[in-house]
C-alpha cells in the first residue's frame, strides 16, 4: 500500500475510538482511512461492528480486511471486525445474541442513509453500552441539510462533527505537493450542436415552467439548473411532493429527464447515435404520451438539426477529433507509453473504441485496449474508486473524456500518494456547454453544502445533541414483531415506549399485541399493492382464522389521502366484518395506539403465534433474490406452490431459457404449467386483443329511483 | 333551529358561534327526555326532531315513540323521495330520516335510496350492514352523541361501519379516540375527507352488496402478455410503460434477457442507469449469495415441519 497522506493520517487520529460524524468531500477516498481504522481492530480482543447494507463500498472494505460482508451470516464470538446489516443487528440484540455491552464500537458507513432500523440498532447499542464509540462516515455532503445533520447526530448520540472538505487546509497542502500536469482542452461545439443545445435548453425550461405553473407553491425551488442536475438530486427535490403531483406533472418530469439525457448524449456521442436516440421520440405513441413539448417550434428545429447533422457529410463529434489529435501527439514519442481514456459510460467507451481503431465490424465488445504505435491505449468507464484501475494499468497519460468532479479528485489523490511518475491529465470539455456548466454546478453545490455544514458546526453548542437514550424495559409488556417489520420505524418506537419487542418470524400478521389481537400494518402504497395482488385478502383470512381480534393498521400521511383505495378496502370490510381498521397518521400515533391496546389484556402467546396457519412460505425471502423471486412468481405457469422448486432448480433466467418444456414441466409440477412457462419464456408476446376482449362496460343505470325531481 | 351530526362547519349556516352553547344544553336535556316540538324546527321535517329521541337507548319504551311514528311523513318537497310510511324496500339503500339535509346524500347518484323510519343505523345498505355517520367537528362538540348511537345499533348488524368525515383541523387526538371507540364497540372505522367521498362510500357499500371477492383476490388466469408485463415491473425502476416498450421492441422475454446492454439503452424511456439495472437484474442468479441449491431444496422439505424451533428456544431462554 502506498504511503498515507497527511490528511489521511490526521483523519485517522481524529477518528480512533471517538464518537464522531465524519463528512468528507467525494473522491478524497476515505475508504482507505476506514480500512486502516478497522485494521487496527482486527483482533479477537476487540469487537467492532460495521453496520452496512451490502453495497459495493462495503464489499470492497470487507474484502480488503478479509472478513465476510454483511450479506453473509455473521458470528460475534470470534471478535475482531464484524460486518452486519442493521436489521440483523437489531434482531440479534433483542434476542440477546450479541454481547452489546462488550462491543468496542460501532462503525456506520453511509451516514447520510441512516434509516429507522439503523437508528434502532444504535439506540440499543447506546442503551446497553454507554462507553463504546459510534463512528459514522459519509462522503456525500450535499445529502446533509441543516435539519438532517442534526437528526443524524441525534441518532448517533454525539456532537462531534468532523468536516473534511476539499478546501480544508490540510487537504489542500497534502494535494498541492505533487500535482498532475493538467492540459485542459476546451473543445468548441459546432454550430449545429450549439443550436441543438439551445433548443434542448428551451424545451427543458418549458417543462420546468409548466411544472411550476401546474403546481403553484409546490415546486417553487425548481429551476432549469436543478432539472439539469443528476436525476437523483432532482428526485430528492421531488420526493416530498411526489404524491401531490398529477399525471401531467409526472409526465413533465419524465420528459425533463429525457431532455436531460439528450443534452448529455449530445456532448458525449456522435451525430448518428444522437439521431437514433431521438427516433423513439418521434413516434405517435410517444407524442400521445408526452407533455406537449413536441409541439413547440424548438422541438421541430431539434429534429431538423439532428437530421441535418447526420446527413451526407457526417459531422464528427469535435471531442473525437480532439481525442484523436491528442493520441497522435502522444503516440509520436518513441517511449512505450500507456494511455488511459476514461469516459463516464461504457457505451461511450465502445463508441470511442470503434472510432479510434477505425474498425466498425470486428471490434469485440469486451476489448478495452488497442495499440497505437508503441503506445497501449486503454478505454475504461469511470468507476469509483479509480485507484485499483490506475494501479493496474499504471498509465502515464490519462484522458478524461467526460468532466467529472470525483474523477478529478481521485486523480489528485492518486498522484499525491504516488508522486512518481508524474501523470499528464488531459481534461476534454466542451467550452461554454451544458457539460461544463454541470461540472461547475457540481463543484459549487458541494462547496455550498460544506459551507452550510461549517456554519452548522459552529452553531452546535455543547450538549445540544441530547444523549438521552431512554431506558429499556418491559413496563408495557411484550409485543411480538415479525422480523420483516424491522425495516419500519414502528418497532423502534414501541421499544422507546418501554414495550419489550420480541422479534420472531410471524406467519400471520406483523404485530401480535395481546393474546387475541393481531395487527397487519400497511402503508398506503402497501395497501394499494396488497389489495391489488390479493395478498391482503389472504392475510385477512389468516388473521380472522387465527385471532379473535384481527386489526388492519393503515398508516397514512396527509398526501396519501387521495390515493386510498377506498372501494377495495370497503369490499374487504364487507367480506371481513370482524376486521377492525386503525387509522394512524404517523408511526408515533401507531405506537401509542398499540401500547394503549395492550392495557389490561393478556400478553401475546408465542406458542399460538408459532402454531398459526401460515399462508406464506418462510425462508423464501432469505434464500432467494428479492427481485428475481417476484419476477419469477409473476411468470405464467408459476404459482405459490411451485415457486420454490422453479427458483431453486431453475437457478437463473439464463438456465431457464435452456430448458425444454418437459424439464419445465418437471419444475412446475404439471405439463400444462410447464408448457405455458416455456412459451412465455420464448414466444413473442403481444397484447392479444381478441382474447382479452373486455365486455363493454355496462352502462351505469341512469335510473334514479325514486326520482328526486318528479 | 336544528343541528345535525353532519354539519360540516359552523359556516354551513345552521349553527352559529352564538348558538352553540344552547345547542349543547339542548342536546344534554334531550337525553333526559325533554321533547322537542317539531314547530321549533325550521319546518323542514318532523323526523329532524325524531333524531334526538331516537338516540335514547330504550327508544321503543319512550312515550314519544308512538307519537313520532304517527307524525306526518315530512315536508312535501322530499315526500317523493322518502317513503317512510310505505313498506320497507330492502333492495334500495335505506336512509334514516335523521340524515335529511346531510350533504353526502347529494353525491349518492348511482343507487336508489329512500328514507326509512325504522332503521337503527343512519344508512342501511343491506340487512346485515349498518353505517353510522359522524362529522368529526360535531363529535368534538358532542362526544356523547356517538355513544348513544352506538348503543342503538350494537346488536343489529354483522358489519357496523362508523363513517367519519374528517372535517376538523386537529384531527389526530379525535382520530385516536375514534379508533379506540371502534375497537371497543367492534365497529369498522372508515374515513372520508369530504361529503362527496362520504357519499361515494355509502353508495359503494350498497353497490358491493353482493360483490364476489374477485377484485381483491389473487388472479392467476391473466393473459401471458399481461403477466409478463407484471413480471418486468418487478424490476426496480421499470414501470408499466417500460415493460410494454420492452415487449414491443424485443418481442419475447428471452430476447429481452439476452439483449446487450447497448440495445436496452436505446429503448425510449431507458437511460443508462435503468438499462443497466434491468440488465443486471435479469442476469442475477435466483439463489442469494452463499445459499446452495441443496439448502433451498432442504428447506422446501422442512417446510411442512416446524422450522421455527430456533425462535422458540430463544424466546424461552
Automatic annotation (TrEMBL), chain A:
Signal sequence bounds: none
Gene Ontology biological process terms, A to Z: double-strand break repair via homologous recombination; nucleotide-excision repair involved in interstrand cross-link repair; resolution of meiotic recombination intermediates
Subcellular location: Nucleus
GO CC term (a single one): nucleotide-excision repair factor 1 complex
Name of this protein: DNA repair endonuclease XPF
Domain of life: Eukaryota
Record PANTHER family: DNA REPAIR ENDONUCLEASE XPF (PTHR10150)
The species this protein was found in: Cloeon dipterum
InterPro entries on file: ERCC4_domain, Restrct_endonuc-II-like, RuvA_2-like, XPF_nuclease
Keyword flag Hydrolase: yes
Family: Belongs to the XPF family.
One of the record's GO molecular function terms: damaged DNA binding
Keywords from the named record: DNA damage, DNA repair, DNA-binding, Endonuclease, Hydrolase, Nuclease, Nucleus
Pfam family membership, one: ERCC4
Main location: nucleus
Keyword flag Nucleus: yes
Domain ERCC4: 478-558
Amino acid at each position: 500500500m502506498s504511503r498515507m497522506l497527511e490528511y489521511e493520517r490526521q483523519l485517522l487520529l481524529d477518528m480512533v475510538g471517538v464518537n464522531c460524524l465524519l463528512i468528507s468531500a467525494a473522491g478524497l477516498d476515505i475508504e482507505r482511512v476506514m480500512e486502516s481504522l478497522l485494521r487496527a481492530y482486527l483482533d479477537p480482543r476487540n469487537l467492532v461492528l460495521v453496520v452496512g447494507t451490502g453495497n459495493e463500498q462495503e464489499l470492497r472494505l470487507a474484502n480488503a480486511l478479509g472478513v465476510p460482508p454483511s450479506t453473509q451470516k455473521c458470528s460475534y464470538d470470534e471478535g475482531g471486525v464484524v460486518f452486519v446489516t442493521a436489521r440483523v443487528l437489531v434482531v440479534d440484540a433483542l434476542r440477546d445474541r450479541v454481547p452489546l455491552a462488550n462491543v468496542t464500537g460501532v462503525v456506520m458507513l453511509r451516514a447520510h442513509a441512516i434509516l429507522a432500523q439503523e437508528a434502532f440498532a444504535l439506540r440499543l447499542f447506546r442503551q446497553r453500552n454507554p462507553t463504546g464509540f459510534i463512528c459514522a462516515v459519509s462522503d456525500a455532503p450535499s445529502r446533509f441539510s441543516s435539519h438532517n445533520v442534526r437528526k443524524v447526530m441525534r441518532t448517533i448520540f454525539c456532537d462531534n462533527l468532523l468536516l473534511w472538505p476539499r478546501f480544508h487546509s490540510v487537504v489542500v497542502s497534502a494535494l498541492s505537493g505533487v500535482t498532475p500536469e493538467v492540459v485542459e482542452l476546451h473543445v468548441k461545439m459546432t454550430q449545429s450542436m450549439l443550436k441543438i443545445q439551445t433548443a434542448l435548453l428551451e424545451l427543458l425550461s418549458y417543462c420546468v415552467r409548466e411544472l411550476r405553473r401546474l403546481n403553484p407553491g409546490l415546486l417553487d425551488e425548481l429551476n432549469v439548473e436543478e432539472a439539469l442536475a443528476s436525476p437523483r438530486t432532482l428526485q430528492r427535490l421531488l420526493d416530498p411532493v411526489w404524491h401531490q403531483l398529477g399525471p401531467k406533472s409526472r409526465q413533465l418530469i419524465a420528459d425533463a429527464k429525457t431532455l436531460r439525457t439528450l443534452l448529455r448524449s449530445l456532448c458525449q456521442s456522435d451525430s448518428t447515435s444522437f439521431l437514433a436516440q431521438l427516433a423513439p421520440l418521434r413516434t405517435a405513441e410517444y407524442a400521445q404520451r408526452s407533455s406537449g413539448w413536441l409541439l413547440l417550434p424548438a422541438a421541430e428545429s431539434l429534429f431538423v438539426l439532428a437530421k441535418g447533422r447526420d446527413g451526407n457529410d457526417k459531422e464528427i463529434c469535435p471531442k473525437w477529433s480532439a481525442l484523436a489529435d491528442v493520441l497522435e501527439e502522444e503516440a509520436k514519442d518513441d517511449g512505450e507509453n500507456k494511455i488511459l481514456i476514461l469516459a463516464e459510460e461504457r457505451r461511450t467507451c465502445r463508441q470511442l473504441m470503434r472510432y479510434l481503431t477505425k474498425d466498425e465490424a470486428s471490434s469485440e465488445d469486451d476489448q478495452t485496449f488497442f495499440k497505437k504505435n508503441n503506445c497501449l491505449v486503454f478505454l475504461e468507464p469511470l468507476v469509483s474508486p479509480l485507484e485499483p484501475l490506475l494501479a493496474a494499468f499504471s498509465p502515464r497519460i490519462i484522458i478524461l473524456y467526460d468532466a467529472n468532479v470525483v474523477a478529478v479528485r481521485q486523480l489528485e489523490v492518486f498522484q499525491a500518494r504516488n508522486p512518481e511518475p508524474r501523470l499528464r491529465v488531459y481534461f476534454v470539455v466542451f467550452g461554454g456547454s451544458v457539460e461544463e456548466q454541470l461540472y461547475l454546478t457540481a463543484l459549487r453545490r458541494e462547496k455550498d453544502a460544506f459551507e452550510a455544514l461549517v456554519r452548522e458546526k459552529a452553531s452546535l453548542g455543547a450538549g445540544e445533541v441530547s444523549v438521552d437514550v431512554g431506558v429499556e424495559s418491559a413496563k408495557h409488556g411484550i409485543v411480538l414483531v415479525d422480523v420483516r417489520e424491522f425495516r419500519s420505524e414502528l418497532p423502534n418506537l414501541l421499544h422507546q415506549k418501554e414495550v419489550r419487542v420480541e422479534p420472531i418470524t410471524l406467519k400471520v400478521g406483523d404485530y401480535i399485541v395481546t393474546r387475541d389481537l393481531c395487527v397487519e400494518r400497511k402503508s398506503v402504497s402497501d395497501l394499494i399493492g396488497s389489495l391489488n395482488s390479493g395478498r391482503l385478502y389472504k392475510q385477512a383470512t389468516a388473521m380472522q382464522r387465527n385471532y379473535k381480534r384481527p386489526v388492519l393498521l393503515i398508516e397514512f400521511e396527509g398526501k396519501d389521502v387521495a390515493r386510498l383505495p377506498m372501494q377495495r378496502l370497503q369490499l374487504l370490510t364487507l367480506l371481513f366484518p370482524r376486521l377492525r381498521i386503525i387509522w394512524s397518521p404517523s408511526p408515533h400515533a401507531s405506537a401509542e395506539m398499540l401500547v394503549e391496546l395492550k392495557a389490561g389484556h393478556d400478553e401475546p402467546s408465542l406458542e399460538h403465534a408459532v402454531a398459526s396457519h401460515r399462508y406464506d412460505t418462510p425462508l423464501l425471502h432469505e434464500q432467494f433474490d428479492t427481485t428475481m423471486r417476484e419476477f419469477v412468481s409473476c411468470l405464467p405457469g408459476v404459482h405459490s406452490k411451485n415457486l420454490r422448486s422453479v427458483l431453486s432448480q431453475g437457478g437463473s433466467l439464463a438456465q431457464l431459457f435452456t430448458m425444454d418444456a418437459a424439464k419445465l414441466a418437471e419444475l412446475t409440477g404439471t405439463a400444462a404449467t410447464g408448457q405455458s412457462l416455456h412459451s412465455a419464456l420464448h414466444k413473442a408476446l403481444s397484447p392479444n386483443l381478441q382474447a382479452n376482449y373486455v365486455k363493454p362496460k355496462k352502462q351505469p343505470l341512469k335510473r334514479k329511483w325514486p326520482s328526486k325531481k318528479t | 333551529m336544528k343541528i345535525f351530526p353532519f354539519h360540516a362547519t359552523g359556516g354551513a349556516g345552521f349553527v352559529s358561534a352564538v348558538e352553540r352553547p344552547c345547542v349543547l344544553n339542548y342536546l344534554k336535556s334531550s337525553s333526559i327526555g325533554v321533547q322537542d316540538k317539531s314547530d321549533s324546527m325550521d319546518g323542514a321535517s318532523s323526523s329532524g326532531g325524531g333524531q334526538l329521541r331516537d338516540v335514547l337507548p330504550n327508544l321503543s319504551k319512550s312515550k314519544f315513540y308512538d307519537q313520532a311514528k304517527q307524525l306526518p311523513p315530512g315536508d312535501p318537497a322530499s315526500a317523493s323521495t322518502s317513503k317512510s310510511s310505505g313498506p320497507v324496500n330492502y333492495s334500495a339503500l335505506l336512509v334514516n330520516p335523521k340524515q335529511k339535509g346531510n350533504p353526502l346524500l347529494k353525491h349518492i347518484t348511482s343507487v336508489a335510496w329512500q328514507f326509512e323510519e325504522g332503521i337503527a343505523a343512519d344508512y342501511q345498505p343491506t340487512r346485515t350492514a349498518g353505517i353510522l355517520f359522524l362529522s368529526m367537528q360535531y363529535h368534538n362538540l358532542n362526544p356523547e352523541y356517538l355513544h348513544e348511537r352506538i348503543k342503538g345499533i350494537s346488536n343489529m348488524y354483522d358489519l357496523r361501519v362508523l363513517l367519519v368525515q374528517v372535517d376538523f383541523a386537529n384531527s389526530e387526538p379525535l382520530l385516536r379516540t375514534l379508533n379506540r371507540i371502534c375497537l371497543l364497540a367492534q365497529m369498522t372505522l372508515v374515513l372520508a375527507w369530504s361529503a362527496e367521498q362520504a357519499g361515494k362510500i355509502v353508495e359503494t357499500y350498497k353497490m358491493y352488496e353482493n360483490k364476489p371477492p374477485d377484485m381483491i383476490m389473487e388472479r392467476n388466469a391473466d393473459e401471458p402478455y399481461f403477466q409478463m408485463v407484471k413480471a418486468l415491473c418487478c424490476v426496480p425502476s421499470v414501470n408499466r410503460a417500460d415493460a410494454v416498450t420492452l415487449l414491443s421492441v424485443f418481442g419475447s422475454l428471452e430476447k429481452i434477457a439476452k439483449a446487450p446492454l447497448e440495445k436496452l439503452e436505446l429503448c425510449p424511456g431507458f437511460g443508462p442507469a435503468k438499462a443497466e439495472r434491468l440488465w443486471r437484474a435479469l442476469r442475477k442468479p435466483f439463489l442469494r449469495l452463499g445459499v446452495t441449491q441443496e439448502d433451498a431444496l432442504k428447506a422446501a422439505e422442512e417446510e411442512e415441519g416446524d422450522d421455527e424451533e430456533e425462535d422458540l428456544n430463544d424466546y424461552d431462554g
